[in-house]
Specification:
single chain, mainly alpha
């Protein structure tokens, strides 16, 4: 969204990207090689990324008060233009993506440990 819309991501968005982008490489290589133990490398990235996304989502919804201001006036992800379908905030979309990855990795782990 940031690249397409020409907006600079906030600090928390960058942290989420730091954990999401390597997942594409780790899971891609594991899939290509047929490595069923790839979940061992991907799980820590997905869990920590989900933590950042969960924290960001709670900040967005106002459930917790920010100790550090994560979005400045130039890089804000709290506006309506940073929502999908007009109402789903990007931090929540990130949380859903990480959650689906973690669930998928648990399923793979369960299948390989039989």
């Amino acid at each position: 969204m940031g690249e397409v819309m020409g907006r600079t991501p906030c600090v928390l968005c960058w942290y989420q990207r730091i954990f999401m982008f390597p997942l594409a490489l780790v899971l891609g290589v594991a899939s290509y090689r047929g490595d069923h133990d790839g979940w061992r490398y991907a799980m820590p990235l997905a869990v920590v990324g989900a933590g950042f996304a969960g924290y960001h989502t709670l900040l967005y919804w106002g459930v917790i008060e920010p100790e550090i201001v994560s979005c400045s006036a130039e890089t804000s992800c709290s506006g309506a233009e940073m929502a999908i379908l007009g109402s789903i905030p990007l931090p929540f979309v990130s949380l859903l993506a990480f959650a689906l990855i973690v669930i998928s990795l648990f399923l793979v782990r369960h299948q390989t440990n039989k």
